[in-house]
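step=encode ok
step=design start
structure_in=
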C-alpha cells in the first residue's frame, strides 16, 4: 500500500509503529504522582519492592524483556531477581516483591499505555488485567491496586542514567 502526504508526496517506505523495550537497556520505572521509582529494598528473595527518590543506584534499575506477546519479565539490575507478587497472590493490596525468575504468571507484566498523550503506562500483572501497580498513599510501599487511574498507578519508563 502506498501512503500520500500533504501536497501529494508519495511515501513508499515501510513505517514500523510497533516499539518494544530493548532487552540490553537499563530502565527506571517511576510513578507520576511522586516521581519516585521502583527499587529493590535489599538483595534477599522475597524482599519487598519499594518506591524511592531516584539516586542512580543499581537497586532502582530494571531490565525489561519480552517473554511472550504483551508479557514482560522485569528484572532488578542489582539483585538479578524478577518483579513478582508476594506469595503468588493477585488480590487487592498484594505487596510487590522480588524473586528468582520462574516464568510464573505473577512474574509476567503488561505495560499498557495510559493513552492520554503523556507517555505514561499502567504496569499490571498480565494475568490480572483489573489490577495495576500503585499506591493510594505516598508511602514507599508498592502494592497491587484495583484499576482506578490514580496518578500513582501511572508509570514512566525511561532510560536509567
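sequence_out=
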Amino acid at each position: 500500500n502506498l501512503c500520500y502526504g500533504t501536497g501529494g508526496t508519495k511515501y513508499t517506505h515501510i513505517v514500523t509503529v510497533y516499539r518494544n523495550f530493548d532487552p540490553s537497556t537499563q530502565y527506571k520505572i517511576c510513578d507520576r504522582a511522586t516521581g519516585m521509582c521502583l527499587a529493590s529494598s535489599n538483595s534477599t528473595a522475597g524482599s519487598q519492592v519499594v518506591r524511592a527518590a531516584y539516586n542512580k543506584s543499581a537497586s532502582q534499575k530494571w531490565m525489561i524483556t519480552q517473554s511472550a506477546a504483551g508479557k514482560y519479565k522485569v528484572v532488578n539490575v542489582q539483585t538479578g531477581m524478577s518483579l513478582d507478587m508476594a506469595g503468588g497472590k493477585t488480590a487487592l493490596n498484594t505487596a510487590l516483591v522480588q524473586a528468582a525468575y520462574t516464568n510464573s504468571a505473577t512474574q509476567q507484566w503488561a505495560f499498557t499505555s495510559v493513552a492520554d498523550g503523556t507517555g505514561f503506562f499502567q504496569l499490571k500483572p498480565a494475568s490480572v488485567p483489573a489490577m495495576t501497580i500503585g499506591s493510594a498513599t505516598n508511602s514507599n510501599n508498592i502494592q497491587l491496586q484495583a484499576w482506578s487511574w490514580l496518578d500513582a498507578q501511572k508509570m514512566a519508563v525511561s532510560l536509567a542514567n
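step=design ok
step=annotate ok -> The chain has a mean pLDDT of 83.
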